[in-house]
Every structure is written in structure tokens, then in C-alpha cells.
Amino acid sequence: MRACRLRLLRDRLGPTPRTLAPAARVLYALTGDLTVVHDGGISTVRADSAWHGPGACSVTAAAADATVLRWELVGPEAGRDGELVLEQAMDLAPGVAWLMRCDRVDFDAGGVALPHRHRGGGIRCLVAGALEVTVGDDPPRSVRPGGAWFESGQEPVRARASATEPTSFVRVSVLPAEIQGQSSIMYVDPADAARGRPRRYTVWVDTPIVVP
User: Fold this and answer.
1) Could you tell me the CATH superfamily of domain 2-82?
2) Does the domain at residues 98-209 carry the CATH identifier 2.60.120.10?
3) What's the average model confidence in pLDDT over 141-146?
4) CA–CA separation, 106 vs 131, rounded Å?
């Protein structure tokens, strides 16, 4: 196994560039637009969208201030800068091709995700509403916007959204590259795939990576 760490940081940006070292990285513009200078090019990342890149880059707010959620997959000795929200060790099998996926999951009021697993682990961050999450045998946890949690993909997870308002979270997962373009979800009871209340998915990144 290759020992890596998946981490989520929160950056508050203004006109001064933030220079980031090479890493398998996703930037999600939580508020405000971003300008990312990378590999000799420039990308604009609109609010509520995401960008991925493995090389060094420089990030600024495109106009006024911006808040960024930054996921990075790094080796065990990598340094860290920025406000750490959550960090989790991950053991990735050698000889397996991996990808990094970033998407947003939207629940209508009262939505439920019945017990399920995933093909890989990832960090989620709530961006709207409220969510009660139960991971494995742990007690239910109430998550509010800005709260983050890790799912290994191995333990069954159940989630219940706010009964009074729409709920959304953004996640970055490390998944086998063989499922690129496919759902990673596996229901504990396969019949549950047709039950519950449907969720909507917006995928921004689904890209093979080099594991550090």
C-alpha cells in the first residue's frame, strides 16, 4: 500500500496571489470567482465550480474576495499551508490506476441517502442546508455548512437532509480509474437503488492522477 493523505483546506483570497506547490489538487470556488495561473495558462473558475491540476499554480480572487475549498492528495512528508479543515490518511494499492473526482450532491428538503458504500474514500464538505450523517457504527452526526467528514467507502453510510431546506455538499474522492464516468455508489441492499428520494449530481472533475 502507498501511504497518502487526503486533506481539505479553506483559503480566503484577495488580490495577492497564493502560490501552491505541485499536488493532485482540486479547487472549489465556494464564494467569488478565481483566477488560476498554471502550466503557462490562465483559467477562470466561477463561483460554485471546480478546477483540477497536478502542477504548481498561483490563485487569486478574480474580483473581490473569494473563499476556496482546496483538496490535496499528498505524500506523508508534505508540508501544509492554509486553514486545515480535515485530513485523513489513505492507503492506496500500488499497481492500481486512480482518479480524483469532484462533484456536488444536492438533496431536496427531506431527502435521504439509504445505507450505501463507495468504491473509494473521500472528504465531503457541506455547503448548504443541514445533514445528519451516520458512518458505520458511529453515532449520527449533525453537519452544518462548513462542516466536513470522511467516508472510506468501506463502512455503510446513511444520510438524512434537512426537512425544511435544500441541502448540498461538495466532495472529492479518490477512486479506481476503471470507473471513470461511472457512479461509485454500492447500496447495502441493492433494492434501495430504486427507493428513497433521488439526489442530483454535478461532476466537475473526473481525472486520472499520479499517486504521490
Assistant:
1) Jelly Rolls (2.60.120.10)
2) yes
3) 98
4) 11
